[in-house]
Amino acid sequence: MAVIYETACTLNGFLATEDDSLDWLFAIPGEQPDLKPFMEAATAIVMGSTTYEWVLRTEDLLAHPEKWPEYLGRQPLFVFSSRDLPVPEGADVRVVDGDVGRHLPEIRAAAGDGDVWLMGGGGLAARFLDAGALDRICLTVAPVTLVTGKPLFAGDARWDRLRLCSAEKVGEWARLVYDVRPTSA
Fold this sequence. Notes:
- By secondary structure, this protein is α/β, with parallel strands linked by helices.
- It is built from six helices and ten strands.
- The protein has helices at residues 23-26, 36-41, 49-59, 68-72, 100-111, 122-130; strands spanning 3-9, 14-16, 42-48, 77-80, 93-96, 115-120, 136-141, 150-151, 162-170, 173-180.
- The relative contact order is 0.25.
- The model has no long low-confidence stretch (mean pLDDT 93).
């Protein structure tokens, strides 16, 4: 079981625009990276409230909960938020608050032998790294730059913690995979 931060970002390291738009991501023509095998291996998903609310709003999942499995599968979803959030009928959404380490046993138990997909955002990914709970970072880098936006990672991840496992070209995209090394004791 691994916790994997799997995400797409711009060439200059943004996940979304300042107003949380991903229009730039879906406008890129041609061959797209195939994330289906990864998505099928992930048996639990973790995301922050901004990402969760974007998915709900963009896909109108509160009004159409039957669409939930198409977008996020049937695995449990853990949403880190300090607020109460709406949950589509029938979806296994668990809203948690506070320290990442406090919730890791429940997240790992829900994932079983599968992987945990840390979907976003950059602040939550940094919290998982700080808790020693991030095992891999998989980036699909788009041929796009933004003047400002939401950062890919809102913390320090120095070279001595990251080991490049693979780099490949997929159409106009670059796919980079890094293993995260534990901190030295």
